[in-house]
Amino acid sequence: MKHFICGCAVVLLAACQADPEKRVAVETSAAGYEFAHLPIFEKDVTDVTLQIAWPTDFAWRSDVNPFVPYVASQAILSEGAAGLNAQELMEAFNDKNAFGRLHIQTDHVIGELSFPIEHLDFVQSVAKEVLVDPKYTENWLERVKDQVGSNNRNAAKKEQWNLWSAVRIAVLGDSPLYNALTLPEPDLASEVGREDVLDWHKTYLTKAPVAISIAGRISAEEAGDLIDGLLVDLPDAPDLQSTDTEVNFAPLNVYFEWPDAEKTQVGMLSALPALTERKDHLDLIALNTLSRAQGPMMEAIRTELRAAYGVFAGAQNYHRDGRFAYIYAEVEGDKLAQSIDVMRSTYEDFRTAETIEAVSEVSSDIAARVKERSEFVDVAAQTMLQSMLDGFDPNRVETLADEFAGATEAAVREQLQTGFAAGDDLIVIAIGPDRSAWPGACVITSLEEVLSCPR
Predict the structure, then answer these.
(1) Pick from 316, 391, 416, 393: which is nearest to 10 by CA?
(2) Contact 81, 129 (CB under 8 A)
(3) Which positions ≥6 away from 400 have C-beta within 8 Å?
(4) What does each of the 455 residues of the chain score in pLDDT, given as a tens digit?
(5) Helix (H, G, I), strand (E, B) or coil at 199
(6) Which of 57, 174, 256, 437 is positioned for an S-S bond with 431, CB 3.0–4.6 A?
(7) Which Pfam family, giving just one, matches this sequence (predicted)?
(8) Fold classification of 252-452 (topology level)
(9) DSSP assignment, residue 3?
């Protein structure tokens, strides 16, 4: 599920203990760029990670090829720079333990650089060159287009990919955003032209990012100079179109008939409250408690019904404002209807329970994982950046573990009862080989048919 890439899932990744030598500060570079800075000068820390977020409306545009950002992001470092050809540049980055890439999200392009501080000058010179003067030569673009198209065609053959694609079109409709996330026409990759890529680059990689974070063995002055060097010569940012999105989480029961399916899979969705309510950690505690190995969903679907070996649940979003909870399981095909009934009723019983066991245990476990990752500079930079994009203060990286550890059962129960959809109001989509496996469901054989199913 590559589309489940942004937003609340990152909150499980990191936190950092505040101390006199390691504290988040919002600094301003000489050129006027604000950035969140977490200096880490501990003995064994030599690395630095910089993340820059640029706004994009590309996924909302109907006049573009949705493959362009994916081709551009993979081609940008594949041609060489700083007097080195592609192979030499790759070897130089590997030898220096350095790393750079662009992450394509629906509402932001995230640029990332990670490197040992001793190689700051080299990494900055390479990154500046590929940002200010990208090559995107035809031969490299052809290679990248072939790879991107092939990867997408292979993904489209898999049942799980089609299950979540059906969920996406149910929520987003046949919209540009759906097309950007699903890429339903793999052959469009071959139609990406060099001018398309160059236009995307100059439109979205500009001197006006919306958030910047940097963590590791680097001073505020060095960080500011690095940021200024990368950004000041980039083009001005154009006006972008609105990225307001209509989503539809109305109840839906769909069976996607896939004759060659080797297994039957089920996905369930509920809309979640906006991040502005500042309760996303409660969502994650609730979903982890529901789906853990000793939790109620596993007990019902695996131990009692003996219809599945595993259940997974989490919180994600297709764009910054559209959050949802999901539950996923592979089930025995001849027990599909029973499995859905049991999963739905177990979810609803959990959602409305007067007491919930194991909240303290689950929240403590998550807090421990958060603390365990706190020493990784790349995770710290990512968490600060995503916190800012989500409307939080970047210093949430210092308090996140405490948020999880301090969550109460009462708070989790209230969030479940007020923020999660009722069991009968879920979107439920299954995929498998037998159209008779779920009586009463709307049976489809292609993704677009979801739009004709009654709701």
Answers:
(1) 316
(2) yes
(3) 11, 14, 15, 281, 370, 383
(4) 333 333 333 333 333 444 436 899 999 999 999 999 999 998 889 999 999 999 999 999 999 999 999 999 999 877 767 777 778 888 888 899 999 999 999 999 999 999 999 999 999 999 999 999 988 989 989 999 999 999 999 999 999 999 999 999 999 999 999 999 999 999 999 999 999 999 999 999 999 999 999 999 999 999 999 999 999 999 999 999 999 899 999 999 999 999 999 999 999 999 999 887 889 999 999 999 999 999 999 999 999 999 988 899 999 999 887 899 999 999 999 999 999 999 999 999 999 999 999 999 999 999 999 988 877 999 999 999 999 999 999 999 999 999 999 999 999 999 999 999 999 999 999 999 999 999 999 999 999 999 999 99
(5) helix
(6) 256
(7) Peptidase_M16_C
(8) Cytochrome Bc1 Complex; Chain A, domain 1 (3.30.830)
(9) T
Residue with tokens 């708070």: 411
Amino acid at 251: P
Per the structure block, which two tokens stand in for 121?
A: 């000058």
Six token digits for residue 354: 């007067």
Do residues 119 and 98 touch, judged by C-beta distance below 8 A?
yes
CA proximity to 206, closest of 55, 78, 413, 354: 55
Beta strands 34-39 and 84-85, pairing class? unpaired
**Where are the chain's structural domains?**
7-231, 252-452
Contact present, 316 and 8 (Cβ < 8 Å): yes
Q: Which helix (H) or strand (E) holds 312?
A: strand 308-317
Domain 7-231 sits in which CATH superfamily?
Answer: Metalloenzyme, LuxS/M16 peptidase-like (3.30.830.10)
